Amino acid sequence: MKPKKPAGKAASRSFSIARKSVALTIAGSDPSGGAGLQADLKAFQQNGVYGMSVVTLLTVQNTVGVKRVEVMPVDLVAEQLECVLEDIPPLAIKTGALGSPAIVRAIAERLETYSGDLIVDPVLISKHGDLLGDGSMTAAYREHLFPIATLITPNRYEVEAILGRKLTDLDSFCQAADDLHQLGPKYVLIKAGVIDGDRQHILADDEHVTCIGVADVPGNHGHGAGCSLSATIAARLTLTSPKHPHALRVNSAVQGAISAVHTSLELSPPLGQGCRPVEHRVLHAGKNAGRAQ
C-alpha cells in the first residue's frame, strides 16, 4: 500500500510579510483583552505588523469597569524599554496608560533621540469622563512627551484638561487642535466624539486642520476603541514607505485607522455585561475614513 501524499501544497505556499514592520506599545494591561496593550498587540497583528510591549501598569478590569490599578516601578518600565530597543528597534512606538509622571519622564528621556514615529495617546480621562490621571500627569505629558511626539491622539475630555477650557462646537475643536500643535507634536488628532450626528476627528499639522467625520454607531460599545485607533495608526505607519512625504503617510494611516475602528464598532461582539469591546479582528479593514472637511 502506497503512503498517502500530504494534503494540499503547504510546502509551496508563498506569503507576503512585511518583515521589517515592527511596532512597540508602552501601555497598561487589560485582562479582559478589550483595551490596553492587549488591544494594541491585536491591532498590530491584524495589520500584519510584529508587535512588542512594555508593561507600565496592571489593572483589574472588565467591560463593566476598573477595580484596581497597580503601577509598575519606574526602573522596571525603563529596563523593559531599554531591553527591547537594544535588540529589536521598532519603526513605530505608541504609548497608552503610563501610570505616573515619573514613568512619563523616563520614557521621554529614553525616546528623545528615537528616530521612528512616536504616537502618544495621553490616557488621562476615559471617553465617559472618568479621571485616569491628575494635573501632574497632564503637566508631564505637556512638558516631556508632546514635544517629541509624531502624533498625539487625545479625546475631548483630555483636550479640555490639557488646555483648561471647555469645547463646545466644531470650531472650538479646530482651534484646540491648532493650540495643541503649538505644544510640540508634529500632528494632532482629537477624538471629538459626536457632533451634529457624526463622530468627528480633527487632524492638525503646521499647515492644515482637517475634520474627518464618520457616522455614529449607537449602542453601549467601544471599550478599547481609543487604544485600537492609535495602535492601528502606528501599525500602518510601519507599513508605509519612508520615500513618501511624511504628511501623506500620516494622513493615510489616520484615515485608514479611523475607517477600520468604525467598522470594528459596527461589528462589536456581544461580549461582557458592560461596554462591549470593539471587534479587533477587522482592524485591517478600512481605506477611506469618510467625510473630510
From TrEMBL:
Pfam families: Phos_pyr_kin (PF08543). Keywords: Kinase, Transferase. The keyword Transferase applies. InterPro entries: HMP/HMP-P_kinase_dom, PM/HMP-P_kinase-1, Ribokinase-like. Pathway: Cofactor biosynthesis; thiamine diphosphate biosynthesis. One of its GO terms (molecular function) is hydroxymethylpyrimidine kinase activity. It is an enzyme of class 2 (transferase). Residues 30-278 form the Pyridoxamine kinase/Phosphomethylpyrimidine kinase domain. Its EC number is 2.7.1.49. Transmembrane segments: none annotated. The keyword Kinase applies. This is hydroxymethylpyrimidine kinase. It comes from Stieleria magnilauensis. The lineage of its organism: Bacteria, Pseudomonadati, Planctomycetota, Planctomycetia, Pirellulales. The gene is thiD.
